[in-house]
């Protein structure tokens, strides 16, 4: 028995608007709910194990994907439900922006961990701020456009598509800039005679970043083309395109960061250097640290003095 006929006539009660031009596939949606849920559970476990809190946006994105495809399961059973349509439309659309937010934060952390922040063309502090700000703008634009599309009327859908396209263009612009900056950093790292060991340590993280960025970029371009085409164009009428150029690519992004952990040894070094940097900024306010620094000690010895001074009161109470 085939899927029910979809009424796209102007007198269908919504001016010809329909949530889908096909009947959403139950098996395809269920498979990706399971894939994203399993990967998300592993990412959450590792998040708490390694305390890689900067990857929280990424994990929220994975949850968005799982819940979004669950919405498509709901649409399979209740085709005209705006709730399920909005759920899948917004969450699947917005998840890559959350992936991007964590990926943007990876480069500055990697540069600091490799003692190579001087090779960045933008200061590490501003690098994350600049690109995450762009990502937030893209996220907000896509959210607004998705909300307008979900109202269920043709005019709102048209306006929403244009706003979403604007958000996607912002995303593509910042992604392109980020890839350029990462490539320049990588090139400088390879050419630097004083960073031979760091080049080897950082290679897999940079290659993973390139792969993830490339996959999200292809997906964003697909979405732009999808929204440029008419509502009843081939990309909107064939569900397979969504799963090939969105679901599958985003699953690869999620999976690749399971293979190459975005936290662990090299980012422990980032945390250590960050602590030392914070200490250097505040050492004038701490007598023990000021004494250690002025008596010929280095930052690490000052850190040791701080650790000792922080532990001393607790030991005296025993």
From TrEMBL:
Region ranges (Disordered): 283-318
Q: What is this protein called?
A: RTA1-domain-containing protein
Kindly list the residue ranges recorded as spanning the membrane.
20-45, 52-70, 82-105, 126-143, 163-185, 205-222, 242-264
How does the record say this protein sits in the membrane?
Answer: Multi-pass membrane protein
Instruction: Please classify the protein's predominant subcellular localization into one broad category.
Output: membrane
Basic and acidic residues bias located where? 283-292
Ranges of Polar residues compositional bias?
302-318
Q: Gene Ontology terms, cellular component aspect? A: membrane
Q: Where located?
A: Membrane
Q: Which organism is it from?
A: Arthrobotrys musiformis
Q: Does the keyword Transmembrane helix apply?
A: yes
Asked whether the UniProt record includes Kinase among its keywords, one would answer: no
Q: Which InterPro entries match?
A: RTA1
């Amino acid at each position: 028995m085939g899927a029910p006929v979809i009424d796209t006539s102007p007198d269908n009660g919504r001016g010809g608007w329909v949530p889908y031009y096909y009947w959403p596939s139950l098996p395809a949606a269920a498979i990706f709910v399971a894939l994203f849920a399993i990967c998300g559970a592993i990412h959450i476990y590792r998040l708490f194990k390694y305390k890689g809190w900067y990857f929280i946006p990424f994990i929220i994105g994975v949850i968005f994907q799982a819940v979004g495809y669950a919405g498509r399961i709901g649409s399979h059973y209740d085709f005209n439900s705006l709730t399920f349509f909005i759920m899948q439309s917004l969450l699947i659309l917005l998840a890559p922006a959350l992936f991007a937010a964590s990926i943007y934060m990876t480069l500055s952390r990697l540069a600091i961990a490799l003692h190579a922040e001087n090779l960045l063309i933008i200061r590490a502090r501003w690098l994350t701020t600049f690109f995450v700000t762009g990502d937030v703008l893209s996220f907000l634009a896509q959210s607004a456009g998705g909300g307008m599309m979900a109202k269920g009327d043709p005019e709102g859908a048209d306006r929403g598509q244009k706003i979403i396209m604007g958000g996607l263009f912002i995303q593509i612009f910042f992604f392109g800039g980020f890839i350029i900056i990462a490539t320049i950093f990588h090139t400088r790292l390879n050419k630097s005679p004083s960073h031979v060991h760091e080049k080897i340590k950082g290679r897999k993280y940079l290659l993973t970043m390139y792969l993830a960025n490339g996959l999200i970029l292809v997906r964003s371009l697909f979405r732009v083309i999808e929204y440029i085409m008419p509502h009843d164009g081939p990309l909107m009428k064939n569900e397979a395109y969504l799963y090939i150029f969105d679901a599958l690519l985003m699953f690869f992004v999620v999976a690749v960061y399971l293979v190459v952990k975005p936290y662990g040894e090299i980012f422990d070094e980032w945390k250590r250097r960050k602590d030392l940097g914070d200490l250097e900024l505040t050492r004038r306010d701490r007598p023990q640290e000021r004494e250690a620094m002025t008596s010929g000690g280095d930052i690490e010895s000052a850190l040791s003095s701080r650790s000792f001074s922080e532990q001393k009161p607790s030991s005296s109470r025993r």
